[in-house]
Specification:
Blueprint: H1 2-19, E1 55-59, H2 66-81, E2 85-88, H3 100-108, E3 113-116, H4 125-133, E4 137-141, E5 152-155, H5 159-174, E6 178-184, H6 190-202, E7 211-218, H7 223-236, E8 240-245, H8 248-259, E9 268-271, H9 275-283, E10 290-292, H10 295-310, E11 321-323, E12 329-331, E13 337-339, E14 344-346
Parallel strand pairs: 1-2, 1-3, 3-4, 4-5, 5-13, 6-7, 6-8, 8-9
Antiparallel strand pairs: 10-14, 11-12
Helix pairs in contact: 2-10, 3-4, 5-6, 7-8
The protein binds alpha-L-rhamnopyranose.
Residues 61, 65, 67, 117, 142-143, 185, 191, 221, 247-249, 272 line the site of alpha-L-rhamnopyranose.
Organism: Catenuloplanes indicus
Domain Periplasmic binding protein: 56-313
Keywords: Signal
Length: 356
C-alpha cells in the first residue's frame, strides 16, 4: 500500500534523524552495551524480514486464570505462524514479585522475546533490565511494567477508554445515583490501578455527582478471596447498588455470590469479564452488562510485536509501524504503547456470539 510505504519511510527517516549518532547498530543477545533504557538505541529497519525460529516466551500475571489461558492461546497461534518456539510459564499467584524467578530462568534459556503481564510495575524491573542487557526484547501486555524496563506495551484498549466504560456502566446500572464499590485484583496491579484512577477522575464530573464510590477492595485475582470480598462489601454497605469489578476473576466471583443470594436483582454486578464465565449470570439475570476485549488478540499482537522487535523491524519508538498477521497494521504510540482496539460491551442480546 502506498500510504503504508510512505509512512514506513517517513518513520525510518525520523528514527534516523532522532537517533543520529547513537544509532550505531542493533543490540544482539549477549551484547551488554546498552539495550536498557526507555528507548532502544537501535535503528528500525521497516524492511527487515521477520526472523524464523525466535524463542518467544509468555509470562502472564498467573497461570491459574482462564483469562491468561485465552490470552496465551492467541500468542501460541501467532508464534506458530511466525515459525518460532512458544513457551508459557508463570506463577500461580499474582503477588508483586512472583514473576522474578521466571524471568531469571527465561534469561538463562536465552529467549529472544519475553512477553509479560507485570504483577507490579517495579518489582519485575531489575530482572527485565538484565534480560534487556542480554539482548532479549520485552513486550509487556495486559498490565504494564515501568516504561524503562520494557520495549513496548500492548494495551488491550486505551486506559482512559476502559476507565470511562467502567464508570458509564456503573452509572447506568445505578440509575444515575447511589453507592457503588470496586472489587479489584491485587493492590499492585498496574492495569487495574490505572483503570480505577480513571474511574475516580470520571466520578468528579457533574454527570456523576450523585454516584458515590464507597470502597475499593482487592480479591487478589483469587476466586475465593474475591467471593468473600464481594460478600463483605454487601454486608458493610447495605445500600450498595453496584459492584464494579475490573477483573475477570473478581466479576465472576461476585456474580456467583450475588446470583445465589438475596441480593440478586437488587445489586448489579458489572466490570470486565470473560463471556464464557459470565454467560450463566447474564442468562439468570444477575448481570445485565459488562465489557472486555478479545484476550487472544492481545497474545497474538504481543507475539508479532516481539518478533518485529527481535528482527529489527521496530525498536519501540513512537510512529513505527508493523503488521500483526490477521490483525493488520499497528502504529506504536507515545511511550511504546500499542493499543489493540476498543472494548466490547456484552449483554443478553449479544453474549452468545462470543466464545472465549
Ligand atoms: C483478570 C486479570 C487481567 C485483566 C482481566 C480483565 O483476568 O486481572 O490482568 O486484564 O482480569
Amino acid at each position: 500500500m502506498r500510504t503504508h510505504t510512505t509512512r514506513a519511510l517517513a518513520v525510518a527517516t525520523a528514527s534516523l534523524l532522532t537517533l543520529g549518532i547513537a544509532a550505531c547498530g542493533g543490540t544482539s543477545k549477549g551484547d551488554n552495551s546498552g539495550a536498557a533504557g526507555p528507548a532502544s538505541t537501535a535503528t528500525a529497519d521497516p524492511n527487515a524480514a521477520l526472523k524464523e525460529g525466535l524463542k518467544i516466551a509468555f509470562l502472564p500475571k498467573q497461570l491459574n486464570n482462564p483469562y491468561s489461558d485465552v490470552l496465551a492461546g492467541g500468542g501460541e497461534v501467532a508464534v506458530g505462524e511466525l515459525k518460532g518456539e512458544y513457551k508459557l510459564v508463570g506463577p500461580n499467584d499474582a503477588a508483586a514479585s512472583s514473576q522474578v524467578s521466571y524471568i531469571n530462568t527465561l534469561i538463562q534459556q536465552q529467549q529472544d522475546v519475553i512477553g509479560i503481564a507485570a504483577n507490579d510495575p517495579n518489582a519485575v524491573c531489575p530482572s527485565l533490565q538484565q534480560a534487556r542487557q542480554a539482548g532479549i526484547k520485552i513486550v509487556s501486555f495486559d498490565s504494564d511494567a515501568s516504561r524503562d524496563c520494557r520495549d513496548v506495551f500492548i494495551n488491550q484498549a486505551t486506559t482512559q477508554g476502559i476507565g470511562e466504560s467502567l464508570a458509564t456502566m456503573a452509572n447506568e446500572l445505578a440509575g444515575g445515583e447511589g453507592e457503588i464499590a470496586i472489587l479489584s485484583a491485587t493492590p499492585n496491579a498496574t492495569n487495574q490501578n490505572a483503570w480505577i484512577k480513571v474511574v475516580e477522575e470520571e466520578l468528579k464530573k457533574p454527570e456523576y455527582s450523585k454516584l458515590k464510590l464507597v470502597k475499593t477492595v482487592y480479591g487478589n485475582d483469587e476466586d475465593q478471596k474475591s467471593f468473600q470480598e464481594a460478600q463483605g462489601l454487601l454486608r458493610s454497605y447495605p445500600n450498595l447498588k453496584v459492584i464494579v469489578s475490573p477483573t475477570t476473576v473478581g466479576i465472576a466471583a461476585a456474580a456467583r455470590y450475588v446470583s445465589s443470594s438475596s441480593y440478586k436483582g437488587k445489586v448489579a454486578i458489572t466490570g470486565l469479564g470473560l463471556p464464557n464465565q459470565m454467560r450463566e449470570y447474564v442468562k439468570d439475570g444477575t448481570v445485565s452488562k459488562f465489557a472486555l476485549w478479545v484476550p487472544s488478540d492481545i497474545g497474538y499482537l504481543a507475539a508479532y510485536a516481539g518478533a518485529a522487535l527481535a528482527s529489527g523491524r521496530i525498536t519501540g519508538a513512537e510512529g513505527e509501524t508493523f503488521t500483526a498477521g490477521k490483525l493488520g497494521e499497528y502504529t506504536i504510540a507515545a511511550n511504546g504503547e500499542i493499543v489493540l482496539g476498543p472494548p466490547t460491551e456484552f449483554t443478553a442480546q449479544n453474549i452468545d456470539q462470543f466464545d472465549f
